[in-house]
Design goal:
Low-confidence stretches: 1-24
Number of domains: 2
Structural class: alpha+beta
Number of strands: 5
Distance between the termini: 40 Å
Number of helices: 6
Order of helices and strands: HHEHEEHHEEH
Shape: globular
Radius of gyration: 18 Å
Helix content: 40-55%
Largest sheet: 5 strands, antiparallel
């Protein structure tokens, strides 16, 4: 009789893990536009566009997109083909930001992905985007 609760708990843990990017919630070695875009399109209140990205983002070899996460905020996501390219993209943003833009508050690099927010993101805005970061395969 004690095995049913244990079995139910095992299935619950397995279900949670399967929704978190695989065993142990492991992050992919690189993020990809296609699977990330598909996930974001399924989010309520999120709008995704491949248009209206800035010039720096258009240079990303893995593509770029603009994601509106609220009525007042959006993020441009530039997918590089390597971490070295992502570092180059990050440096370009820093170079062109100028002194009046608090770039450290709106710029973030994760592996091969560079994110640039319109305004510093609220927790739920950032969570909506980060929870959808996906790799290939």
């Amino acid at each position: 009789m004690g095995t049913r609760p244990a079995l139910a708990a095992t299935f619950a843990v397995a279900a949670l893990l399967s929704g978190c990017g695989g065993p142990g919630g492991e992050e992919p070695s690189a993020f990809r536009l296609g699977p990330t875009r598909q996930c974001l399109l399924a989010e309520d209140g999120v709008a995704v566009s491949r248009k209206n990205v800035d010039f720096v983002a258009t240079t990303a070899l893995g593509g770029a997109m603009r994601v509106r996460v609220s009525a007042t905020n959006f993020v441009v996501m530039a997918f590089a083909d390597s971490e070295a390219e992502a570092a180059r993209i990050e440096e370009a943003y820093r170079q062109y930001a100028g002194k009046s833009i608090p770039i450290d508050d709106v710029l973030e690099r994760r592996k091969n992905l560079v994110l640039v927010w319109n305004a510093p993101p609220a927790g739920e805005e950032e969570d909506a985007v980060l929870s959808c970061l996906k790799g290939s395969g």
